[in-house]
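Moderator note: this is an archived Q&A kept for reference. The question asked for a predicted structure of one protein chain; the sequence and the answer are reproduced below.
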Amino acid sequence: MPVTAAGVEYLRTPDANFAGLDGYDFAPNYLEIDGLRMHYVDAGTRDGPVALLMHGMPTWSFLNRHIIKRLRAAGWRCIAADHFGFGRSDKPVDDGWYSIARHIAAHRTLIETLNLTDVTLFVQDWGGPIGLAQAVAMPDRFKRLVVMNTWLHHDGYSYTKGLRDWNAGWQPGGFFGRNVPDTFDLGSFMLLPTAHAKPADLMALVANGTPIPTDAAGEAVRAGYAAPYVGLGRAGHAGPRRFPLSLPFDNPEGGNAAAQARDFAALAHWQKPIDFIWGGGDDVFTEDWGRTWAAQFPQASFTLLPGAGHFPQETRGAEIAGWFLELVG
Protein backbone atom coordinates (compact mmCIF):
# COMPACT_ATOMS: atom_id res chain seq x y z
CA MET A 1 0.00 0.00 0.00
CA PRO A 2 1.21 3.54 -0.70
CA VAL A 3 2.46 5.65 2.19
CA THR A 4 2.51 9.43 2.30
CA ALA A 5 5.38 11.88 2.86
CA ALA A 6 5.04 15.65 2.48
CA GLY A 7 1.69 15.12 0.81
CA VAL A 8 3.03 12.66 -1.80
CA GLU A 9 1.80 9.07 -1.94
CA TYR A 10 4.54 6.64 -2.90
CA LEU A 11 5.56 3.00 -2.93
CA ARG A 12 8.90 1.62 -1.78
CA THR A 13 10.29 -1.55 -3.33
CA PRO A 14 11.18 -4.21 -0.72
CA ASP A 15 14.92 -4.73 -0.26
CA ALA A 16 14.42 -8.46 -0.90
CA ASN A 17 13.66 -7.70 -4.56
CA PHE A 18 17.29 -6.69 -5.07
CA ALA A 19 18.95 -9.70 -3.45
CA GLY A 20 21.21 -11.77 -5.67
CA LEU A 21 20.97 -9.70 -8.86
CA ASP A 22 23.61 -10.73 -11.36
CA GLY A 23 26.64 -8.39 -11.27
CA TYR A 24 24.93 -5.87 -8.99
CA ASP A 25 26.30 -6.20 -5.46
CA PHE A 26 26.71 -2.51 -4.59
CA ALA A 27 25.73 -1.32 -1.12
CA PRO A 28 22.70 0.99 -1.19
CA ASN A 29 22.92 4.66 -0.24
CA TYR A 30 20.00 7.03 0.21
CA LEU A 31 19.37 10.76 0.11
CA GLU A 32 16.08 12.17 1.39
CA ILE A 33 14.56 14.86 -0.83
CA ASP A 34 11.23 16.41 0.18
CA GLY A 35 10.37 13.37 2.27
CA LEU A 36 11.20 10.85 -0.49
CA ARG A 37 14.18 8.53 -0.53
CA MET A 38 16.49 8.64 -3.57
CA HIS A 39 18.85 5.70 -3.97
CA TYR A 40 22.36 5.95 -5.36
CA VAL A 41 25.42 3.75 -5.79
CA ASP A 42 28.65 5.18 -4.37
CA ALA A 43 31.31 2.66 -5.30
CA GLY A 44 35.07 2.96 -5.22
CA THR A 45 37.65 5.00 -3.39
CA ARG A 46 36.41 8.36 -2.10
CA ASP A 47 39.54 10.20 -3.27
CA GLY A 48 39.50 8.77 -6.80
CA PRO A 49 38.33 10.60 -9.92
CA VAL A 50 34.54 10.84 -10.03
CA ALA A 51 32.26 9.27 -12.61
CA LEU A 52 28.57 10.19 -12.49
CA LEU A 53 26.52 7.69 -14.49
CA MET A 54 22.94 8.44 -15.51
CA HIS A 55 20.22 6.05 -16.63
CA GLY A 56 17.06 6.50 -18.65
CA MET A 57 13.94 4.48 -19.44
CA PRO A 58 13.05 1.75 -18.49
CA THR A 59 16.30 1.12 -16.63
CA TRP A 60 18.00 2.01 -13.35
CA SER A 61 21.56 2.01 -11.98
CA PHE A 62 21.68 -1.73 -12.75
CA LEU A 63 22.25 -0.64 -16.38
CA ASN A 64 25.66 0.80 -15.53
CA ARG A 65 26.95 -2.10 -13.42
CA HIS A 66 29.55 -3.28 -15.97
CA ILE A 67 31.02 0.21 -16.37
CA ILE A 68 31.02 0.82 -12.62
CA LYS A 69 32.91 -2.39 -11.85
CA ARG A 70 35.59 -1.70 -14.44
CA LEU A 71 36.07 1.93 -13.35
CA ARG A 72 36.04 1.02 -9.67
CA ALA A 73 38.80 -1.52 -10.25
CA ALA A 74 40.83 1.25 -11.92
CA GLY A 75 40.55 3.52 -8.85
CA TRP A 76 37.51 5.60 -9.77
CA ARG A 77 34.66 6.69 -7.52
CA CYS A 78 31.38 5.90 -9.29
CA ILE A 79 28.07 7.56 -8.44
CA ALA A 80 24.91 6.23 -10.08
CA ALA A 81 21.50 7.29 -8.78
CA ASP A 82 18.07 5.90 -9.56
CA HIS A 83 15.58 8.53 -10.69
CA PHE A 84 12.47 8.70 -8.55
CA GLY A 85 10.09 6.02 -9.79
CA PHE A 86 12.98 3.71 -10.75
CA GLY A 87 15.32 1.21 -9.12
CA ARG A 88 15.58 1.41 -5.34
CA SER A 89 14.31 5.01 -5.21
CA ASP A 90 10.81 5.76 -3.93
CA LYS A 91 8.00 5.67 -6.49
CA PRO A 92 5.28 8.34 -6.27
CA VAL A 93 2.06 6.79 -7.56
CA ASP A 94 0.60 9.94 -9.14
CA ASP A 95 1.56 10.12 -12.81
CA GLY A 96 1.20 13.90 -12.68
CA TRP A 97 3.94 14.18 -10.03
CA TYR A 98 6.63 13.35 -12.58
CA SER A 99 8.36 15.87 -14.82
CA ILE A 100 11.80 16.17 -16.35
CA ALA A 101 12.34 19.38 -14.36
CA ARG A 102 11.70 17.46 -11.15
CA HIS A 103 14.20 14.75 -12.10
CA ILE A 104 16.78 17.45 -12.91
CA ALA A 105 16.22 19.13 -9.54
CA ALA A 106 16.66 15.84 -7.68
CA HIS A 107 19.98 15.11 -9.36
CA ARG A 108 21.19 18.62 -8.71
CA THR A 109 20.45 18.11 -5.01
CA LEU A 110 22.44 14.87 -5.07
CA ILE A 111 25.46 16.51 -6.76
CA GLU A 112 25.45 19.44 -4.36
CA THR A 113 24.88 17.31 -1.25
CA LEU A 114 27.78 15.01 -2.14
CA ASN A 115 29.78 18.07 -3.27
CA LEU A 116 30.92 16.30 -6.42
CA THR A 117 33.68 18.07 -8.38
CA ASP A 118 35.91 17.26 -11.36
CA VAL A 119 33.13 14.97 -12.53
CA THR A 120 33.12 12.87 -15.69
CA LEU A 121 29.47 12.55 -16.69
CA PHE A 122 28.15 9.48 -18.53
CA VAL A 123 24.68 9.97 -20.07
CA GLN A 124 22.29 7.93 -22.21
CA ASP A 125 18.58 8.09 -23.11
CA TRP A 126 16.72 10.37 -20.62
CA GLY A 127 19.98 10.61 -18.71
CA GLY A 128 21.04 13.00 -21.48
CA PRO A 129 18.54 15.81 -20.87
CA ILE A 130 18.68 15.27 -17.09
CA GLY A 131 22.47 14.97 -16.85
CA LEU A 132 23.55 17.52 -19.43
CA ALA A 133 21.35 20.07 -17.68
CA GLN A 134 23.67 19.67 -14.67
CA ALA A 135 26.79 20.34 -16.75
CA VAL A 136 25.19 23.45 -18.27
CA ALA A 137 24.01 24.77 -14.87
CA MET A 138 27.17 23.88 -12.91
CA PRO A 139 30.01 23.66 -15.44
CA ASP A 140 32.71 24.16 -12.81
CA ARG A 141 31.78 20.79 -11.28
CA PHE A 142 32.32 18.85 -14.53
CA LYS A 143 35.49 18.17 -16.45
CA ARG A 144 34.40 15.70 -19.16
CA LEU A 145 31.22 14.47 -20.86
CA VAL A 146 30.60 10.99 -22.28
CA VAL A 147 27.46 10.99 -24.43
CA MET A 148 25.76 7.76 -25.49
CA ASN A 149 22.58 7.39 -27.59
CA THR A 150 20.66 10.39 -26.34
CA TRP A 151 19.58 13.88 -27.41
CA LEU A 152 18.53 17.34 -26.32
CA HIS A 153 15.32 18.75 -27.73
CA HIS A 154 15.75 21.83 -29.95
CA ASP A 155 14.16 23.48 -32.95
CA GLY A 156 14.82 21.42 -36.02
CA TYR A 157 15.43 18.14 -34.19
CA SER A 158 13.82 15.33 -36.18
CA TYR A 159 12.25 12.69 -33.96
CA THR A 160 12.64 9.24 -35.45
CA LYS A 161 9.80 6.85 -36.19
CA GLY A 162 11.23 4.57 -33.50
CA LEU A 163 10.83 7.28 -30.88
CA ARG A 164 7.37 8.29 -32.08
CA ASP A 165 6.27 4.65 -32.02
CA TRP A 166 7.67 4.33 -28.48
CA ASN A 167 5.59 7.32 -27.37
CA ALA A 168 2.47 5.95 -29.08
CA GLY A 169 2.94 2.58 -27.44
CA TRP A 170 2.70 4.12 -23.96
CA GLN A 171 -0.46 6.12 -24.64
CA PRO A 172 -3.52 4.75 -22.79
CA GLY A 173 -4.58 2.65 -25.79
CA GLY A 174 -1.07 1.71 -26.87
CA PHE A 175 0.63 -1.68 -26.64
CA PHE A 176 2.73 -0.89 -23.56
CA GLY A 177 0.02 1.24 -21.98
CA ARG A 178 -2.31 -1.75 -22.11
CA ASN A 179 0.09 -4.54 -21.18
CA VAL A 180 2.65 -3.22 -18.65
CA PRO A 181 2.64 -4.59 -16.00
CA ASP A 182 -0.50 -6.69 -16.41
CA THR A 183 0.78 -9.06 -19.10
CA PHE A 184 4.55 -8.66 -19.04
CA ASP A 185 7.11 -6.79 -16.98
CA LEU A 186 9.78 -4.25 -17.91
CA GLY A 187 12.42 -6.93 -17.45
CA SER A 188 10.83 -8.92 -20.27
CA PHE A 189 10.87 -5.82 -22.45
CA MET A 190 14.62 -5.42 -21.89
CA LEU A 191 15.23 -8.86 -23.41
CA LEU A 192 14.39 -7.43 -26.83
CA PRO A 193 16.97 -4.62 -27.22
CA THR A 194 19.66 -6.73 -25.55
CA ALA A 195 19.19 -9.52 -28.15
CA HIS A 196 17.89 -12.08 -25.63
CA ALA A 197 14.45 -12.21 -27.26
CA LYS A 198 12.61 -11.47 -30.50
CA PRO A 199 9.54 -9.28 -31.01
CA ALA A 200 7.45 -12.38 -31.62
CA ASP A 201 8.46 -13.69 -28.19
CA LEU A 202 6.94 -10.65 -26.49
CA MET A 203 3.81 -10.87 -28.60
CA ALA A 204 3.39 -14.54 -27.68
CA LEU A 205 3.82 -13.71 -24.00
CA VAL A 206 1.10 -11.07 -24.19
CA ALA A 207 -1.25 -13.06 -26.42
CA ASN A 208 -1.26 -16.39 -24.64
CA GLY A 209 1.21 -16.32 -21.76
CA THR A 210 3.93 -18.27 -23.56
CA PRO A 211 7.15 -17.86 -21.52
CA ILE A 212 9.93 -16.05 -23.33
CA PRO A 213 12.60 -18.53 -24.38
CA THR A 214 15.98 -17.31 -23.17
CA ASP A 215 19.20 -18.55 -21.64
CA ALA A 216 20.62 -17.96 -18.16
CA ALA A 217 22.20 -14.68 -19.22
CA GLY A 218 18.90 -13.45 -20.59
CA GLU A 219 17.06 -14.44 -17.43
CA ALA A 220 19.62 -12.51 -15.35
CA VAL A 221 18.94 -9.42 -17.47
CA ARG A 222 15.18 -9.87 -17.17
CA ALA A 223 15.34 -10.32 -13.40
CA GLY A 224 17.56 -7.28 -12.94
CA TYR A 225 15.28 -4.88 -14.78
CA ALA A 226 12.09 -6.39 -13.34
CA ALA A 227 13.30 -6.23 -9.72
CA PRO A 228 12.23 -2.65 -8.90
CA TYR A 229 8.58 -3.34 -9.74
CA VAL A 230 7.84 -6.89 -8.59
CA GLY A 231 4.77 -6.77 -6.38
CA LEU A 232 4.05 -3.06 -6.88
CA GLY A 233 1.30 -3.36 -9.48
CA ARG A 234 0.24 -0.67 -11.92
CA ALA A 235 0.61 2.17 -9.42
CA GLY A 236 4.30 1.40 -9.00
CA HIS A 237 4.96 1.94 -12.72
CA ALA A 238 4.07 5.65 -12.80
CA GLY A 239 7.71 6.72 -13.24
CA PRO A 240 8.45 4.52 -16.26
CA ARG A 241 5.06 5.38 -17.74
CA ARG A 242 5.76 9.12 -17.62
CA PHE A 243 9.13 9.14 -19.40
CA PRO A 244 7.83 8.14 -22.86
CA LEU A 245 4.82 10.41 -22.33
CA SER A 246 7.16 13.33 -21.56
CA LEU A 247 8.76 13.50 -24.98
CA PRO A 248 8.69 17.18 -26.01
CA PHE A 249 6.86 16.65 -29.30
CA ASP A 250 3.98 15.15 -27.28
CA ASN A 251 4.28 16.93 -23.92
CA PRO A 252 6.40 20.11 -24.15
CA GLU A 253 5.78 21.19 -20.56
CA GLY A 254 6.37 17.84 -18.88
CA GLY A 255 9.33 17.20 -21.15
CA ASN A 256 10.96 20.53 -20.31
CA ALA A 257 11.15 21.39 -24.00
CA ALA A 258 12.10 25.05 -23.67
CA ALA A 259 14.80 24.34 -21.09
CA GLN A 260 16.18 21.49 -23.18
CA ALA A 261 16.49 23.84 -26.16
CA ARG A 262 18.36 26.37 -24.01
CA ASP A 263 20.67 23.63 -22.72
CA PHE A 264 21.35 22.45 -26.28
CA ALA A 265 22.35 25.98 -27.30
CA ALA A 266 24.48 26.50 -24.19
CA LEU A 267 26.20 23.14 -24.54
CA ALA A 268 27.41 24.12 -28.00
CA HIS A 269 29.93 26.35 -26.21
CA TRP A 270 31.38 23.46 -24.16
CA GLN A 271 35.16 23.55 -24.54
CA LYS A 272 36.22 20.74 -22.22
CA PRO A 273 36.58 17.13 -23.43
CA ILE A 274 33.42 15.51 -24.80
CA ASP A 275 33.27 11.97 -26.12
CA PHE A 276 30.45 10.37 -28.07
CA ILE A 277 30.05 6.58 -27.82
CA TRP A 278 27.22 5.40 -30.04
CA GLY A 279 25.40 2.13 -30.46
CA GLY A 280 25.21 1.90 -34.22
CA GLY A 281 22.13 -0.34 -34.24
CA ASP A 282 19.84 2.14 -32.48
CA ASP A 283 16.72 3.16 -34.44
CA VAL A 284 15.73 5.69 -31.75
CA PHE A 285 18.88 7.83 -31.67
CA THR A 286 20.61 6.99 -34.91
CA GLU A 287 24.28 6.98 -35.85
CA ASP A 288 23.65 9.91 -38.21
CA TRP A 289 22.28 12.00 -35.35
CA GLY A 290 25.18 11.07 -33.08
CA ARG A 291 27.73 12.07 -35.71
CA THR A 292 25.89 15.31 -36.47
CA TRP A 293 25.87 16.27 -32.80
CA ALA A 294 29.50 15.34 -32.26
CA ALA A 295 30.51 17.47 -35.25
CA GLN A 296 29.44 20.58 -33.33
CA PHE A 297 32.46 20.16 -31.02
CA PRO A 298 35.94 20.49 -32.51
CA GLN A 299 37.43 18.62 -29.53
CA ALA A 300 34.95 15.72 -29.62
CA SER A 301 35.80 12.10 -30.18
CA PHE A 302 33.26 9.74 -31.77
CA THR A 303 33.37 5.99 -31.23
CA LEU A 304 30.87 3.77 -33.02
CA LEU A 305 29.86 0.42 -31.53
CA PRO A 306 28.66 -1.49 -34.61
CA GLY A 307 25.66 -3.65 -33.88
CA ALA A 308 25.09 -2.21 -30.41
CA GLY A 309 21.57 -0.96 -29.86
CA HIS A 310 19.96 1.64 -27.67
CA PHE A 311 21.49 0.31 -24.42
CA PRO A 312 25.24 0.05 -25.05
CA GLN A 313 25.97 0.04 -21.29
CA GLU A 314 24.15 -3.29 -21.00
CA THR A 315 25.59 -5.02 -24.03
CA ARG A 316 29.05 -3.42 -24.27
CA GLY A 317 29.61 -1.87 -20.82
CA ALA A 318 32.99 -3.42 -20.04
CA GLU A 319 34.21 -2.48 -23.52
CA ILE A 320 33.04 1.12 -23.05
CA ALA A 321 34.83 1.36 -19.71
CA GLY A 322 38.01 -0.13 -21.14
CA TRP A 323 37.99 2.27 -24.08
CA PHE A 324 37.41 5.20 -21.75
CA LEU A 325 40.26 4.23 -19.43
CA GLU A 326 42.63 4.01 -22.39
CA LEU A 327 41.43 7.39 -23.62
CA VAL A 328 42.08 9.18 -20.33
CA GLY A 329 45.32 7.33 -19.67
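Archived answer notes: The chain is about 35% helix and 15% strand.
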